[in-house]
Every structure is written in structure tokens, then in C-alpha cells.
Specification:
651 residues, binds 2'-deoxycytidine-5'-monophosphate, 21 helices, elongated, 36% helix
Amino acid sequence: MNHLDLPALMLAAGTVKLPGSKSISNRMLLLAALAEGETEIRDLLDSDDTRVMLAALQKVGVGVTALGSNAYRVVGCAGVFPGKEADLFMGNAGTAIRPLTAALALSGGHYQLSGVPRMHERPIGDLVDGLRQIGCDVRYTGNEGYPPLEIFPASVDLAAPIRVRGDVSSQFLTALLMALPLTGKQAVIEMTTELISKPYIEITLNLMARFGVMVGRDDWSRFTIPAGQKYRSPGLLHVEGDASAASYFLAAGAIGGGPVRVEGVGRHSIQGDVRFADALEKMGARIVWGDNFIEAAAPAGKLKAFDLDFNHIPDAAMTLAVAALFADGKCTLRNIASWRVKETDRIAAMATELRKLGATVEEGSDWLAVLPAPTFTANAAIDTYDDHRMAMCFSLAALGGVPVRINEPKCVAKTFPHYFDAFAQIAAPVIAIDGPSASGKGTVAQRVAEALGFHFLDSGALYRLTALAAMRAGVALENEAGVAAVAASLPAEFQGEKILLSGEEVTEAIRAEEVSVGASKVAALPAVRAALLDRQRAYRRFPGLVADGRDMGSVVFPDAPVKVFLTASAEARGERRYKQLISKGMPDNMQPLLQDIVKDLRERDARDAARSVAPLKQCDDADLVDTTTLNIEQAVATVMGSVHRKLPIIN
Ligand code: DC
């Protein structure tokens, strides 16, 4: 079995850029396909569920072009799919199969829709009943009430209202609402039972309006689509960040200190799941709303227990079931019956897995109560049931200070393929070691990384590699844009001790004097520093990172829980450098004078400290380690002392 071991964690802070919303992505794709005109959709979610929708639309003849960077151009078919015969595989994507079933049932073609075995256990009967009421010919080819389905051409009659249940899945209503304008006639939908997950219907109505179709709504029980409306492309659209995905990071901020900021959603979001932040606030978390961000930080004391109705945020509520492990008492989640028909039976799955962490859990048909244990059970192996949200939710349990194993973690690809990388960006511990050259920080950092089993980033090597690559490509080191372009696409690779550039070993070459001088020049260029920023941050992975440089604590990892400023007197550093040069076997007449080396180091320190971007300086929250009188072992032991003081869970 595939698994991911998360280390014991205690802190989470930082910023995450959210992937596009699944609900918005798949609705926009279908509406763009049904509209008149071309639509460009930017920031589309790249995931299994959107790929299912894209592939299905292409199979029924809709022109879809990938423009790169998650942008797509969709050539709308003005309500009539060109492909009249298709066999469509829908994976486990509820947001694809439901609206497509309705749209295809009104398209006058012959289609088959099937999915993975779990999809064939997820009910679709209420939608099919609704479609049959108006004359659509939709048949079950497996079990009654469930996919797979076969659809035949039929003529529709909208004289009477369509009566449909609202208490199983709001996606049935969404499917009907999006498809019925294809008839061009007035259509009325009446709910026979109370509608759940209303915010998802708001997303549907909001997006239909952007494509020019207005829907009348009487309370939440009756919807009227006036005759004669057609979807028309609004041209360019942006997909908001995924508010359900935001829940994991916001919860991490509320549990692990924070602040954690998610970018891509904010106070004007059309997604109901942003209301998750309100529930977190009720637990005591400190929440800040921006136009395009939400931020969460922990309360002064413990998170408070809750007893809340989550009908309006069923997906994000799963995150609260895991956040309950950190509360000061029993937490009850109510009105969550829809969990039972999602990717898995989420009430049963959640109860089983929370118990593995030591919690006492009770469940009912539509509720779950979680009583946290005083301490978390370490090394729980969490099963994920091919449910992306189970995998993402339970990553938070590691913040209880215990290692947690996540089985089959790749199921996150359904909506968030890089989830664990993003989680590492706020939760994987970073030990930032900055200081002047020849302070010994490179060796110390490497030894600390080895002792902890952490990843290691020698950020100076990236500046050296940039200088060498620019010199080799004939780019003048003063040419800021040119050198930045080299830095942005640096073909560098680190293989243990070996450093490669375009496949050629340059471990020694980047330490040559002219490259050192070049590195110091390119490191002063703001565009070069910006180009290397994300690359450096990508080194932050589980179980943790030791990063060595000049601005690790101040710029690259400002949220690093452990920051060390490692220095030594210029004389001591000069002597170390001198001994290093001698040990390399330089002929006597070539050897520099110790005093020249010291002078050179002093000048370089002054330059590094005076430059306008990321100057070398000790951060306020960094521990000062002066190695003037310390040997390597003593310096390593001093840094490890800082690590254990700031991150007591690391042993
Ligand atoms: O640590 P080093 O000597 O390998 O660094 C090479 C150059 O890059 C040096 O001039 C300082 C600069 N540098 C920087 O500006 N910021 C970093 N984080 C690391 C190195």
C-alpha cells in the first residue's frame, strides 16, 4: 500500500495560493460549452474531476484548447452538442456526471455514462426521475437509481413543474437548472423536500447569470427559468480559489499558531464554503478577511468545543471534524446526512479514523460527535477510502505533535494534486541558518540536516550556479533581466554532494574565485532574487528543511520556527578560509596573505549588509551563534540546542 508519513508537527504559518475551485471550474466549463461564443477560462482547477469534464466535453464535440497556465478556450456549441453518439467515462466526478446527464438528456443524442465502482453506488435517481417527468429518455443499465446510464433522444414537455427532492444532493437541482435553458421554454422546478447545501445553488445561479440566464427563486422551494433565454459567453472568466481546499490551511493556522493566509478567495467569494471561517471563529480562531484572502490564527488558549449545524458547508465541515480533536470538549456536527453519499460514507469513515487517534466518537444517521482524547495516539495509519477530503483533513492530525501515516495519499488528485506540497509550505519545519561567508554555516547546516534527517538547501549554491550559467551563456552579469531569465530556468540539479548544471558536474567549478565574485554581483540584483524565490521555497518538504544563506530567515522563510544567525569574527573566518586554501595544496608563491583574506571578508560583509535587497542582517527572532571560539561539533550542538528549544517535539 502507498503511504505518506507525516512527522510530528506543532506549528503552521505562512501563505498558500489556492488551486481553482472544483465547483466553479466544472460549472464554468459546462456553461461555456453550452453557450454561444468563445469563453476563455483562467485559473481552472487542474485535477482528476476537471479532466473528466474536459474529456467528456471534447468527446461530445466541444472545442476545448489548453492555453497553458491552467487557462482554456472553450468554443461554445450554442446549446447543441455536435457529437450525437458518445460513451463517456466519468470517473468519480459527481460535479461532472450530474449536470452532464441533464444536459445530454436534452441534447437529442444517444449517450452512455459510467464511472468507477464507487460512482455506481452514488444515487442519481432523483435527477433521473426529474428528467423523466418532462419526457427525457434516461435508462439505468446497472442498478435502478444509480449510474451507469444510457440516454436516448426524446421530446420534452415542460407544461407541468418538475418536482424533485432536495435532501439527497443539491447537485440534482444544479444539473436541472443548468440544463433546462437549452429547451428555450419556461421551466419550473419545485422541491418536494427541504433543499440541502443551498450555497452550492447560489454558485450555480451566480454563474448562470454571468452567462446571461436569470432564474426566479421563491424562497428555496421553487425555481422558475423564464422562456427564451440563451447562454451567451461573457468572454473572459477567472475561477476563484477553492474555498473547500482553503479549510485545511485555515484550520492549520487555527491549530498551529498561524497566521496562515489563503489567497484566491475572500470576502466577496461566491462559494458558500468560505463560511467555514465563521465556524472556525466560533471555535475561537482569529480570522481576518481580505478582498482576495482569508487568514486564520490560533486563539490565546485552546480552541473551543462546538455544536453546530453544517448543512450549508458539508464539504468544509469535514475539516471541523478533525479540528475537533484540538478542542476543549465534545464537538457535535449536525445535519450532515449528505456525507453518507459522497466519495465514501464520510460519517462512517470519519468516525473510524478519528478513533484511531484516540478520540471517542459517536455517530448517527446525520450527525457525528467527537470527544477528543487528552493526547493523540501516535503513528495512527489513516485510511482514506479513495476520498480526497479524508486524506487532506487528516494531515491536520500531525499538528497534535504525533507522527501520522496517511494511506493512499494520491487520492488528493481528485481536487488538489499538490496538496501535501502546499501543506508542507506552511507546516514542514524550517531551520533557517544565515550568516556571513566563512562563518562555517554551510558545514553546520549540513550536519544539522543530517542529524535531523531533514532536507538541505544551500541557497548560496543557487546564486553561484546562476552566475556560472550566465557567464557560460555570455550574459553580462550587469544585465539584470538577462541574468534573471537564466535564474528562472536554471537547469541545476542537486544529487547528494554533487551539483550539476545541464547534466554536467560543477561542484568544484562553482567555488572558483571568479564565480564567487560573480555570485556576489548577481545576488545584488532584485530580479534575480525574485526569480529564485519560489525555487528555494519548494525545498520546504516533509519531514523538514535546513536552509543556509543570507536571507533564509528574513525573506525566503520568514515563518521559519527556528532561525539562527551564525557568525564569527572576521579574523577567525579569515583563518578558516586561509587553512582551507592551504589544504587545497596551493603553491607557496600563489598563497594569499591572511591579512588580505580578512580585509576581503570585511569588504564583502559590508557589501552584503549594505545592499538594498535582502541585506545580510540578524533577524529579531534569530538566535545568535558566534563560532569564533567553537569547533564544528560545538557549533552543531549549539544550533541543535536552538532546534530543541523552539521545536520540543523534535528528538
Ligand atoms: O554562501 P555562498 O558563499 O555560497 O554564497 C554565494 C553568494 O550568494 C554570496 O555572494 C552571497 C550570496 N547569497 C545571497 O545573497 N543570499 C543567499 N541566501 C545566499 C547567498
